[in-house]
Structure formats: structure tokens, C-alpha cells
Design a protein that fits this description.
There is one protein chain. Strands 1, 2, 3, 4, 5, 6, 7, 8, 9, 10, 11 and 12 form a 12-stranded mixed sheet that branches. The two termini are 28 Å apart. The longest helix is centred in the C-terminal third of the chain and has 9 residues. The chain is built from 4 helices and 12 strands. By secondary structure, it is mainly beta.
Length: 218
Amino acid sequence: MKFSSLIVAVAGFATSLLAQTPPGYTYAQSNTTLFLKYPGFPVFKGGAVLPYAEPTYQPFLYSPLPLNGTYLVFFVDADANKSAAVPAKLLWLVTGVTFSNHTSYDLGALDEPLYVATSGNSSRIPYLTPTIPGHTYIALIYQSPANFTFPSNFPYTNTFRDGFNVTRIGVDFKTPLLEANYFTLRSNATTTGTASASGYGAKPTGGSGQFGAYLRRW
């Protein structure tokens, strides 16, 4: 299945930027930029404020670095439930992401050669549109370990996304965070009320048995 493109900052440009995960965010940290390209708004560095409807569809992603393996992409709402022990909601998870072996200049304003993410095996968790102004939305990319498979008790699905523990990615999958980026949304008076009632704040339950045990870890 065709996968939207990805953008990671050029070596010189990317390494000159400050943290590309939110200040004080301890679940994952990276100083290297994963550029996100929405139709009318490229996200060049962490902390951008996007027009409310801009991230309706999954972003294009690119990289300035030659990424020759396969990769995992996670996209989370870091503020889905701040009162919970694990506050994040998983909005998108793509496996088997690969990049082109040549560069392009798709981000004209950046004027740097970027490697484009050209495909992914599947959206294991389909893209869910960010809808809540003021929340922090974080994109993260990790190298896919050799012969990688998800644990049989990995609980997250299209219908269950709450209580996602970003910390567990590196620990359980044994892979480092390579690049990241984050943004917030501008308010939209005509739709904010509906968005707030969309279920983002639902507190995950631990359940019982293997499923519950895995949730407590994640």
C-alpha cells in the first residue's frame, strides 16, 4: 500500500536545531528533525502552530539523511489525558517504511535535498486526524529491528488507541528514536466543541489477564 512521504532535515540543518520533541517531554527525546509536509503547511521544526484543518490527512515525510533500512513511524497526541499515568493516544502507526535512494527539493522554502519516504507495509493503526487545539501532536521515527514483529499482546488497534506509552517503543522493540517533530493546532470556534467530545480524554482501563498486563507496561 502506498505510503505518504516523510521528511527529515538535512544533516547540517537538522543538527543545528534544538530539541524536536517538546520541552520537558520525558517519554522520548530527539534533537533531529523529522519534517512533516501537510498540503499547505510544511513543519520545518518542532513547535509549529498549524491551521486547524491542515493535518486532516496523513503528512508527507522526507529525510536529508540516506535511510537505507525499514522504519516504524508513530504519531501521538501527547496530551490526550494528562491525568492518566500514560497520557498519550496513538493516532497513527506505520510499519515497513522505506525511503527513496535519491533526493528531491519538495520543500522549496527549505531548499535542501531530502530523501522521500516512498512506501510502508501497512498503516497498522490508520491515521486519525488531530482535532484538539492546544494539544501537542508528536511524530516519531524508529529503525525497524531485523525480523521485527509486534508482540502478540500488543493491545493497540484502530478502535483502541488510548494509554500509549511512548517510552516502551525503544525498550520493548529495542530500537532508538532517530528523529521527531511536533506541533499544536490553532483554535477553530465552529468545530472545537465537537472535537473536545471525540473521546480523546477517555481513560484507558487495565483489564485483566495478558491484555491488562501489557497495558500496564505500555
